[in-house]
Amino acid sequence: MVNYRKRRRRDWLFGKAAVCVCLALGTVVAMNLFFGSFGSGGSVSVPPASHADSSGGAFPPSSPNSSRPTISSEKSSAKPAVSSSTVSSVQSAAESGKEPETENEKPESWFDDAAFVGNSRTEGLRDYDGLGDASYFASKGLMVNTVYTERTIRENGKKMTVMQALQKKKFKKVYLMFGVNELGWSTFHIFVDDYGKIVDDIREYQPGVKIYLQAILPVTAKKSDSSQVYTNSKIASYNKAIQKLAKEKKATYLAVNEAVADSTGALPAEATVDGVHLNWEYCGKWCKYLRTHTNS
Amino acid sequence: MKMRVACLAAVMLLLFSAGCAKQSGKVTADAGTIADEIVENEKFVDQMSAIDQKTAVKIYGLKSEDVAEAKVYESTSATAEEVAVFEAKGKDAADRIKKAADTRIDDQKTAYEGYQPKEMKKLETPLLVQDGNYVVLVVADDTSAAKKVTDKYLK
To answer: Contact B55/A127, CB-based, under 8 Å?
Structure first.
């Protein structure tokens, strides 16, 4: 009888202990599932991924009036530090017809009534977002002819051409950047004529608007050396034509190329993964140039 | 006998606890954490930079009132690579954001088709996930690392 009671008591205690152990285990497993799977919500510090390797060309493989050679892939290489020349004296600027540097950097809000028109490089400027509530009408491969023909801009769900989109809102300043995608055109004068037409049409859509023609930004020396079309010497000659056009059309020429070029006039390798498109840091240099060259 | 019953009860409780944890699993990580972790773990050819939420809303053509939080990383435009994580303000808003992400992919396909045809492969196989109020879009060569992150937080 005594043994039976002892055995019952031992079984009872053993059962209780088993229940406690299982409960504890269950709690641990449940907490693991809950907190382990769904995260603690803590912040994660993430440096921007930097894989300086890209292949393929940076420009449209084909375009009207052009035969476009394939551009070789670009890999970053060590380059000397950049000497970005965002500073130019008012005197020399006046002599060269460039926009002089303003005394103070304009606030972002100065660009709230500005529109930026351009190609994929202007998309980079848009993403950098250092120019207030400026509007951007930019698309990859945009050229002085396709602003009228290709419906690349989406406004309120509807796709339209850049020139159509530009008429939807009133702007006091319009910044244009064209040329790099037109470097392969067989007839240089068509580029200049089409560019001039854009300036005239914008003046018609936006009476009283101030128009800025931005220089074509350079490519890296490696990119320039690997192509017969997309060379920095050709970009320099196009920029001279754009500067002349600005003078003829009473627009303002902005030598934004100086903000991102090294001492040789090329885009530093550290500024890009493909020799053409600016990274975050260099979009910042371009942005700063715009904010400090707003007079006249 | 009682011991067996007790053990059985404990096992049932264990299974029940695990089941509850799975079923009540809601996203507790914020959009920024998910996007950061994707960028940290995924391999990109391009340099990825986080853009302002206001700019992201514009690029995707969204209504700002639909978005509780957004974290978007853009490439330099040399590639079509992109990471976007949105937390919507409700199910209907999440549906609209998902639709906008579909449109974004279509627009990028149109843009890159004649510009950088090699990017089309990435755009043909993006990672696009909608789970509750969250919408995630990742465009990269291989999105398996991004999928692991989204599975961790959203599935």
So the answer is: yes
